[in-house]
Amino acid sequence: MTFNRLLYRAALVSKVTSRSVFTSSKPDTANPNWVRVSLAFGTSAFLWGLLFKQHSTDVQEYKVRNGLE
Question: Where does it reside (predicted)?
Answer without folding.
Answer: Mitochondrion inner membrane
